Automatic annotation (TrEMBL), chains A, B:
GO terms for cellular component: plasma membrane. Pfam families: F420_oxidored (PF03807). The lineage of its organism: Bacteria, Pseudomonadati, Pseudomonadota, Gammaproteobacteria, Oceanospirillales. GO terms for molecular function: coenzyme F420 binding; cupric reductase (NADH) activity; ferric-chelate reductase (NADPH) activity; NADP binding; oxidoreductase activity, acting on NAD(P)H. This is NADPH-dependent F420 reductase. SUPFAM superfamilies: NAD(P)-binding Rossmann-fold domains.
Length: 227, 227
C-alpha cells in the first residue's frame, strides 16, 4: 500500500462511514464510498467532496462491489449489523489480496445498550469465518462514536483497539488509522473483538444515562501515574 | 452501610487484595483480610498495618468465612480464578444481606493474554448463578493492575467499570471505590462483565508487548474533544 492507495468504505453513506470518509480524505487518503445503491453513493460522495478543504484527497462513490475492486488494499466494512454477512458474501470473491477492516458492532436489535454476539463470538470472527483464513480480517474503530467522527474539525480524543489473527494486516490498519491522529493499540487476536465490540454498548449506555457529564464517550488506554 | 463499616477482602493476601487493603485502610475504611489460612492472613494484616500512615483505619486478618461474617456489608472476592467457585461455595451461607464484589478475571491458564470464560459468560455471571439471585453480585476493579494498586502513594489514574443486575448494590460499590479517588462508571448488567473482565488480558498484552511506552496500562472513559 502506498500513501495514496484508495481506501474503500462500504456502507459509506451511513453516519460512521461518512465521518470516516471525510476524515481520511482530509488526511490525504483517496476514498471510494460503497453503497447498495450506486447513484446514492455517488450523490453522497459529491456532497461530502464539497465539504472538504483544499488539499484533501478525492471522495468518489459507487456500489459496494465496485468500491471493493477500486480499493488499493484496504476495505472498511461500515454497514448495520443486519447487513454484515450479506455484504461480505457479496464482496468475498473480490477480496483476494485485500484487507477487510470490520468496524461493525452487533448491537442487539432495539437495544443499543447490549450486544447480541453471533455464534462465532463477535462480528470480526464471523467475518473471518465467512471469508476464510486466506483473506485478512482486522477489527477496528468500533468505539469511536459517529458524532465524534463527524465533527471533523475536532480531534478524536479516544484510542482505537485493533484486533485480528494476522500481524502484518493489523500493522497496515494501524498505520492507516494513525493518519487520523489517534493512538492505535494491538488488542490481540480476532477473539479480542468479543471484548472490543462489546465496549461500544457500554459507552452508549453511559451516553444515554446522563450519569456522565458528556454524551459521546470513548475509551483511552492510560499509563499509570508515574509516567 | 455506614462510612466506617468493615470491608472484607477475601484472598486479601494476594497482590490485588494487598493493594486494595492498603488503599482502603488509608482512605478510612476498616479492612478484614480473609485467607484460606487464618494465621497467614493475620500475619499479612499485621505487616500491612505497619505500612499505614497515622489516621488510617485498621487492617485485620482471619479466614475467609470469618472475614465474610465480619464484613459490615461489602465483601470483595480477590482470589485466583481457580479458587473462585470453591471460595464462593464456602461463603455462600454467610452472604445474606451482603454484597459480593467480584474482581476476579478468568485468565486462561498459562496465557494471561487471553480469557477463558466460564459457561455462564463471565466470572461475575458465574458468581451470580452460584449464589442465586437473592445475593447481590457486583463486578468491579478488574482492570486496575496489582502493581498500580500497590503503589499506594500514587493516584490510580484509570477508571473503574462496575456491572451487576441490581442498581442499589452497584451504587454502594461505586461509593466505596470512589473513596480511592477513582471515577466509577455503571457499565450495565452482569453480562457486561464478559466485556469488562476481558479488557484485562488486552491490557496485559499491551504491557508485555513493549509496543506501548508504559507497563501497567489501564483504561479511562474519555469525553469528546469539545468538553
Amino acid at each position: 500500500m502506498t500513501q495514496t492507495s484508495t481506501l474503500a468504505i462500504l456502507g459509506g453513506t451511513g453516519p460512521q462511514g461518512t465521518g470516516l470518509a471525510l476524515r481520511f480524505a482530509k488526511a490525504g487518503v483517496p476514498v471510494v464510498i460503497g453503497g447498495r445503491d450506486a447513484d446514492k453513493a455517488r450523490e453522497h460522495a459529491k456532497e461530502l467532496s464539497q465539504q472538504l478543504p483544499d488539499g484533501s484527497a478525492e471522495i468518489t462513490g459507487t456500489d459496494n462491489a465496485t468500491a471493493t475492486e477500486q480499493a488499493g488494499e484496504l476495505v472498511i466494512l461500515s454497514v448495520p449489523y443486519a447487513a454484515h454477512n450479506a455484504t461480505l458474501s457479496e464482496i468475498k470473491p473480490l477480496l483476494s489480496d485485500k484487507v477487510l477492516i470490520d468496524i461493525v458492532v452487533p448491537l442487539a436489535p432495539k437495544n443499543p445498550k447490549a450486544v447480541e454476539m453471533p455464534p462465532e463470538g463477535s462480528a470480526t470472527e464471523a467475518a473471518q469465518a465467512l471469508l476464510g483464513e486466506d483473506i485478512a480480517v482486522v477489527g477496528a474503530l468500533h468505539n469511536v462514536s459517529a458524532v465524534t467522527l463527524n465533527k471533523v474539525d475536532q480531534a478524536i480524543n479516544c484510542d482505537v483497539l485493533v484486533c485480528g489473527n494476522q500481524l502484518e494486516p493489523k500493522r497496515k490498519v494501524m498505520a492507516l488509522i494513525s493518519k487520523l491522529g489517534v493512538n492505535c493499540y494491538n488488542a490481540g487476536l480476532a477473539e479480542s473483538a468479543r471484548c472490543v465490540e462489546a465496549i461500544t454498548p457500554i459507552l452508549i449506555r453511559l451516553n444515554i444515562s446522563k450519569e456522565v457529564p458528556f454524551s459521546h464517550a470513548g475509551i483511552t488506554i492510560c499509563p499509570p501515574a508515574e509516567h
